[in-house]
Write a structure and sequence with these properties.
This protein is of the alpha+beta class. The protein has 21 helices and 18 strands.
Length: 629
């Protein structure tokens, strides 16, 4: 009940709530008209009488709406539905007695009232399921029922990852006033915003390996080829993610000591791993998962908002085509189902699971929201569709900050970060009429005509955005430049000369790795440059990022990065995505970190491992360090 009083005290009229009131007026008019038309013996004095009924019911509904929100917080959605039907039925019954020109039998008038109120309440319930008020009320109710308070506890740490959001994009949205919650944090001076360079590859698996474990050396891309095992590794597959995690886990990850991992690639040594790829299971043991799937504001909300997302996607894709927006890619097929899955179902389920862990008092919670990343891939990272999703994620941050107040005996501090950004551009295939794999195979065929490679040769091209790892499986281990030149004369230079390839990285034996461009060579050990520096267009962090990438396991015989336009910062993705990340060029390597302004940053944040060290220091300063092994 104290929680209900707090919800009522915090309720304020907003534009969204005014729209809801107007919607309720229209619904009341239609429902009452239908009821009075269907039930014999119930008549009114005409349109004015009907309008009087609608005004009366709408006025009572406006007064009751915040009270029903409290009922939903205390009794749940079904309780609010029952109470709402009873109250509206009483109001409609009294209104019918006042408005009708002749006495009505009590039973008939009350039946009319119940029918109208039931229809109206059910329509309102379905529509309100899509509002944040109803969702927060339901989530708070479950949190309070499951909250565990075992005396005084140290503060907690909640880390929210906004997948794919570049620091310049976030700053732009804040300046435009489109992110009220994050904007208030920054303008009030309570939080600081810092950029950090992701390094290479700029992908979620590499970033989370670094953020959660401080070790990203086992992840050379989103996908790569394991020559020893003879198979392609894709980190979105649970089995592959689990094998990668076994290589890097130490038992001392960021979430060790009772933490929770929600909607991530890896567990971070968390005690609770929910919707985590490396575990490959649904959170069947989670009470929040079961409650979400059976609550009146769970599946109903998913249905209402999910259908809305599909219709919105169809409309926005049509607008891109009609306005001839370029660059663009096709947005149909499975993406039409993927968008509501990520932007509604996964987002709300993640919030519910995080709320459960906060109520249980988990010391550190790390969660990932992929909404923006998915939409930006298909629409473009700075397009209206993606910016609209970023606004919705700002609301999620606001919701989680409200829920964190009710954590199980902990005063949760919040950190918001991204794992990488995104860059935009026409794809490699759109520009040159062939995929990168087709170009590489053609050059290999031309090169091997002057040599005699072993039988059974195969070329594997594993693309991650505008980064590609090329494996020539006829050559054992990782082939150096001399071995490649012997088997495929001129292959490296031919690929480097392609207008869509910015540079090719190859191991030059004792001289170390080199980046080869069309007009120059950059030796990564020592930094000597011959001719035009192929890494210059990619910024000052590029040499260190490429050199570090060469030390990773299972890196390709050749590493290719697409060209970057010096005027637009656009790159040519080797996948069919208008917004992409994985390599270098543009904003894909410009990630963001928001933290309480009073917290100091002890080192330059270059790479996810550096951010991991900083997060660990903040965690330990809060008194949340895991016990010694």
């Amino acid at each position: 009940m104290r929680l209900g009083v707090r919800v009522l005290r915090d309720w304020r009229p907003t534009i969204a709530r005014v729209r809801s009131l107007l919607r309720g007026t229209a619904i009341s008019f239609l429902v009452l008209s239908l009821t009075l038309w269907l039930l014999p013996g119930v008549n009114t004095r005409g349109v004015l009488s009907m309008l009087w009924l609608v005004v009366l019911v709408a006025a009572v509904g406006a007064v009751l709406r915040p009270l029903l929100l409290v009922v939903a917080t205390v009794l749940g959605g079904y309780g609010a539905l029952v109470v709402g039907v009873f109250v509206q039925a009483t109001v409609i019954y009294v209104a019918l007695l006042l408005a009708d020109g002749q006495p009505l039998p009590f039973a008939l008038a009350f039946v009319a009232a119940v029918v109208a109120a039931t229809l109206s309440a059910m329509v309102h319930w379905l529509a309100d399921a899509g509002t944040d008020d109803a969702f927060i009320a339901e989530t708070l109710r479950r949190m309070v029922r499951r909250r565990r308070v075992d005396g005084h506890r140290a503060p907690g740490l909640l880390v929210i990852q906004l997948d794919g959001v570049a620091a310049p994009i976030l700053q732009w949205a804040v300046r435009a006033g489109n992110l009220p919650h994050i904007g208030d944090w920054l303008r009030s001076g309570r939080y600081r915003l810092r950029r950090w360079h992701t390094g290479l590859p700029a992908t979620t698996p590499a970033a989370q390996a670094g953020l959660l474990y401080g070790d990203d050396r086992a992840v050379p891309g989103f996908r790569w080829y394991d020559k020893a095992a003879g198979r392609l590794v894709v980190t979105s597959r649970p089995r592959d993610a689990a094998q990668v995690e076994e290589r890097i886990r130490t038992g001392r990850g960021l979430l060790a000591g009772g933490g929770a991992s929600v909607s991530n690639v890896f567990t971070g040594d968390a005690a609770a791993s929910l919707l985590t790829v490396s575990r490959g299971t649904l959170p069947g043991r989670s009470a929040a998962y079961a409650a979400f799937m059976t609550s009146p504001y769970g599946l109903a909300r998913v249905l209402v908002l999910g259908v809305g997302e599909m219709l919105k996607e169809l409309h926005q894709a049509r607008l891109q085509r009609r306005r001839r927006v370029w660059p663009r890619v096709g947005r149909g097929g499975r993406y039409l189902l993927l968008r509501p899955a990520t932007n509604v179902l996964l987002r709300d389920l993640t919030v519910s699971l995080v709320a459960e862990q906060l109520a249980a008092g988990a010391p550190v919670v790390f969660c990932d929201f992929v909404d923006y990343d998915e939409v930006a891939h298909h629409a473009g990272p700075a397009r209206a569709e993606a910016m609209g999703v970023l606004e919705s994620l700002d609301r999620v941050v606001g919701i989680l900050s409200r829920l964190a107040v009710h954590g199980g005996g902990r005063d949760y501090r919040m950190v918001v970060l991204s794992d990488h950004g995104q860059s935009q551009g026409s794809t490699f295939r759109q520009r040159y009429g062939r995929t990168l794999a087709e170009v590489v195979r053609a050059e290999v065929t031309a090169a091997r005509a002057a040599a005699a490679p072993p039988a059974g040769e195969e070329v594997v091209v594993a693309a991650s955005g505008n980064l590609a790892l090329v494996y020539l499986t006829a050559l054992p281990g990782r082939a150096d430049w001399a071995a490649l030149e012997s088997a495929y004369p001129g292959l490296v230079r031919a690929l480097a000369a392609h207008p869509g390839i910015g540079f090719v990285v190859v191991d030059d034996g004792p001289a170390g790795p080199v980046a080869v461009g069309g007009d120059g060579v950059h030796r990564l050990d020592g930094g000597a440059v011959t001719g035009a520096d192929p890494l210059a267009p990619y910024g000052p962090h590029a040499p260190a990022a490429v050199r570090d990438h060469q030390r990773r396991t299972d890196v390709g015989d050749l590493v290719l990065v697409s060209t970057v336009d010096p005027d637009t910062d656009e790159v040519a993705a080797f996948e069919e995505l208008v917004g992409n990340h994985g390599g270098l060029g543009g904003w894909q390597t410009e990630a963001v970190l928001l933290h309480p302004a009073a917290w100091r940053v002890d080192e330059e944040l270059a790479g996810p491992a550096a951010v991991h060290r900083q997060l660990v220091r903040w965690r330990d300063e809060l008194g949340l360090a895991p016990p010694a092994a």
